Structure formats: structure tokens, C-alpha cells
Amino acid sequence: MWVEIICGLIVYRLFRRFFYDDDVLEVETSDSNAIFSVANRLEKLYGGKVYVGLHIPDADTGSRQNIDMVLVTKGEAAVISVKNLAGFVSISEDGSWACEGVGSHRAERHPDPVAEAKKQASVLESYLEQRGVALPEGYFSYKVVIPNPKFRTIYNTFPSEVITYDQWVQLKPEPKSMFSGWIKGAFRGGKKEMQESFHQQLNFILSTAPMWDRLELKGNKYVLGEFLEFKGKQEDTLALRNIKRSKVSRLIIQKTSMFGLAHSKLQVLYSPRDYRSEGASASEWKEVTVRSSTEVIFQPQNSTKVRKFKLSSITSMSLSA
């Protein structure tokens, strides 16, 4: 019996080694997935453009401020913080949140998310003004979205800036929805040309603002962080030497051929960075073919651990300028 169990474990480990990437199985992507899920739904509900994973310099502290996303539409704009909290949540007198999981006797403390979102909006406004964007007073508002269905409130009435899960699932693309009226008539009566010029400038600045690099993994999983380098056979790393953030904005991974697991190849398509636009046309994409065992060395956001992802587990990677 023990021999059968041991043999079964060996077979399982070999199967997982060849057909799954341990990093994909182990890495915690739920928070990043929640951010991208919220961003996708906002674009579907209200149109416009959502900028995800901004990493904006804060002149007051000399550090950088993480901003989950910024929503920009024709008539409004908002900084949105996503809190993927699960459990029973209450608000303390100082504004901090206490989150206690089901069956847990110890609550996790979180700094006031509304105050954090307000600070993020202030840092973003200062950054945009430094880059020459003349913002109308009160143009940016801020919201905290909680998309986790396991979120529960305890007694407290949450501030109006907070969109709880029950409110989140009921949002509809209507003029009187919870997301309307953010811009306080800043452009009412203004010239249409002026409005369009302003939004073009704003969208360009946000599209070129510092952001976290982004990995999209198989299974619609996301990781935000910093791309460090490629690791693998020398001929493969040499083939990928031109893929640097100064030269490339995005790459896509495609399977090309497989001659046994040890000889599987992947096609890497990458677009040269164009600082005048958001991306390259299809005719500008370049390609290289490398072993699927080649690894991407990546430092996830808010993590001290450097992770390795095999190219075979990656769908695409976006690099910030």
C-alpha cells in the first residue's frame, strides 16, 4: 500500500512539473485580478478609459504613490481604490477599518481607505499640473470599490465614497447612477473644442505616466510589479536582448511547435515602443522564437520575493516607459 502511495506522489509531482508552472499555482493574484475586473466593468458601464496600476511620484514625500486605477470619461474623472476585503468589516473612530474573517478571532487593521484615496487623488493632481495639465478645481473625485462577495459590514454606515459589494453589483450605466456627477460642472458652457483638447491632453499624460509592469498569465490572472530580466539558455536570452522597457512596450506569447516536452518552442511577438502613440500597428510587430522553459524574472508589487515565471505560463507582458 505504501509503495502505491509513494509511486502515486511521484507521478503527481512529475505531472505537475511538466504540465503546470509552480509559480502560477502559488502566486497570489487575487488582488490584481480584482483590480482588472473592476476596471473592465467600469469601461463597459461608462465607456471612457481606465488606467490601471499607476506609480506616481509624490513630491511631498519623495516616494511614489500607488494608484489602483483612474477612470476618465468625457464628463468626469475619478481615482478609484480597490479593496478586495473578505470578512466582517467595521470602521474605527480614527477611520481605520477592522476586518475579521469568518471563524477568526483576530481582526486585521487597514488604514482609512477613503483618506488614502483622497491622498492619491491629490498626488495625481499635482503630478498632472507639473506636466502642464490645467485641471478645473475639484475635477478629480475619489472612490473606494469593494468587489469581494464575501465582504460584510458591521453596524457602521460607510462613507458615500465607498462602494460596497452590494452597491457594486447593482451599478448600471444610467445618468443618475452612483458614478455620475463627479465633475462639478467644470466644463458646462465651455467650448466643445476646449473640452476635446483637454481630454486628449489628459489621456496622453495618463497613458505615458509611470505605471507598474504587468504580467497576464494563463487563466486570466494578472500580476503587477517590475520586470527584471529573462533567464534561460544563452541563445534564448540573446534572442530576447532587444526586449527592454526603453525599446518595447508590450509582448505576446504564442505557442509555435512542440517536439517533446524538452524541445517545445514559443513565439514571442513584441511591439517597438512609440512615445507618440499608445502602441504599434500589426505590421510593426517583431518576433523571436525561444524555448518555453525560458523564464521571466519579476518582482510583484508589495512583495519582497522575486518570482520566476516560465514563458509557457504567460500570455502577455506590458512594460511601463
From TrEMBL:
<dbReference type="Pfam" id="PF08378">
    <property type="entry name" value="NERD"/>
</dbReference>
<feature type="domain" description="NERD">
    <location>
        <begin position="30"/>
        <end position="147"/>
    </location>
</feature>
<dbReference type="InterPro" id="IPR011528">
    <property type="entry name" value="NERD"/>
</dbReference>
<protein>
    <submittedName>
        <fullName>Plasma membrane isoform 1</fullName>
    </submittedName>
</protein>
